[in-house]
Design brief:
275 residues; Metallo-beta-lactamase, Chain A; 7-stranded mixed beta sheet; alpha/beta; 10 helices; globular
C-alpha cells in the first residue's frame, strides 16, 4: 500500500492538500474556488466525486472557501470541530458535517486522524496527524507560535507540512497596513522562517530522517529561496541534518514546478536503511 500526498495549493490565496491510499482519498482544506479545486483535483488524477472527506483546519477563506459547495455538489462529508462549524455558519448549510473535537481521533478508511490545537486567530484552528500505510503525515499550516504539545503531535511524522510564512525583514517593507503586519507578527499570526526553523530543529533533535514541506509562503513577504535559506540556517546552527526541505508551489501547474508529490514508498525505504 502506498500513501501519496499531493500539494494542490499552499499560500494566502488558497490551501489544499490531497492524501490518497488505495481507493480512499481525503482533502485537507479547500481554500480555492469551486472551479479551481475541481481542476486541481483532476490535475492530480482524481475526480472530485471520489473524495471520501474534506478535513478543515479552520474557517478562514484561504482554507475553507469552497468546502461547503464541493461537499454539497458531490455528497462529501466535511470534518471539523464544532467551533469551526459554527464560524462557517451558512457556508456549510446543507452539507454533511462530521464533528471531530480538538484532540480527538477518527478513522476514515485506512487513515487514522488526530487533531491538535494551533495558536492562530481563528475560532478553533487545528493541525492534523494522519497515520496510514506505516507512515505518518503531520500538518500545521496556520500558527503564529509553537508549543511542546505541538512538537509532540508532529514528532511522529515522516512528512511534515509546516508553514514558513514570512521573512521578518521582508515583512517590514511588504505593502501591508501596519495593523496587518502586527497581526502576522503576533503569537496568533503566522510563523516566520526563523520560528519554523526552531520548531523543526526541536522536532528533528531526535536525529530521525524526515521530509519537510515548507508551506503557506507569503507572496509579499517571502520567497522559496528565503524560506529554504532561513529555515536551513537555523537547522544548521542547531546541528540538525536529517530533514529534507522542499518549498511548496503556491498552485499546482502542468508546467514546472508542477505539483509537489510525496510517496510513502520512498520514506519506508529510508526507514529500512536508517532503522
Amino acid at each position: 500500500m502506498t500513501l501519496v500526498v499531493s500539494a494542490l495549493a499552499s499560500s494566502s490565496q488558497g490551501n489544499a492538500i490531497l492524501l490518497r491510499l488505495e481507493q480512499t482519498a481525503i482533502l485537507i482544506d479547500c481554500g480555492l474556488s469551486m472551479r479551481a479545486i475541481e481542476r486541481h483535483l483532476r490535475l492530480a488524477g482524481l475526480d472530485p466525486a471520489d473524495l471520501h472527506a474534506i478535513l478543515l483546519t479552520h474557517e478562514h477563506g484561504d482554507h475553507a472557501l469552497s468546502a461547503g459547495k464541493l461537499a454539497r455538489r458531490y455528497g462529501l462529508p466535511v470534518v471539523c470541530n464544532a467551533a469551526t462549524h459554527a464560524a462557517l455558519g451558512e457556508q456549510l448549510a446543507g452539507a454533511a458535517v462530521e464533528l471531530l473535537p480538538i484532540g480527538a481521533a477518527a478513522g476514515i478508511g485506512p487513515f487514522d486522524i488526530t487533531s491538535f490545537r494551533l495558536p492562530h486567530d481563528a475560532a478553533a484552528p487545528v493541525g492534523y496527524s494522519i497515520a496510514a500505510a506505516g507512515v505518518t503525515v503531520g500538518l500545521a499550516v496556520d500558527l503564529g507560535s509553537w508549543t511542546e504539545e505541538i512538537v509532540e503531535h508532529l514528532r511522529p511524522a515522516d512528512l511534515l507540512i509546516v508553514a514558513a510564512n514570512h521573512d521578518r525583514e521582508q515583512l517590514q517593507v511588504a505593502p501591508y497596513p501596519q495593523a496587518t503586519r502586527r497581526r502576522i507578527f503576533s503569537s496568533l499570526g503566522h510563523l516566520d522562517n526563523v520560528q519554523t526553523g526552531e520548531l523543526l530543529a526541536r522536532i528533528g533533535a531526535d536525529g530521525r530522517e524526515r521530509d519537510v514541506w515548507l508551506a503557506h509562503l507569503s507572496e509579499q513577504a517571502n520567497t522559496p529561496e528565503r524560506a529554504r535559506k532561513g529555515v536551513g540556517r537555523v537547522l544548521q546552527m542547531a546541528g540538525i541534518s536529517g530533514l529534507r526541505l522542499v518549498t511548496l508551489p503556491r498552485r499546482a501547474t502542468l508546467a514546472p514546478p508542477g505539483t509537489a508529490v510525496w510517496s510513502s514508498d520512498g520514506m519506508l525505504k529510508q526507514k529500512s536503511l536508517f532503522g
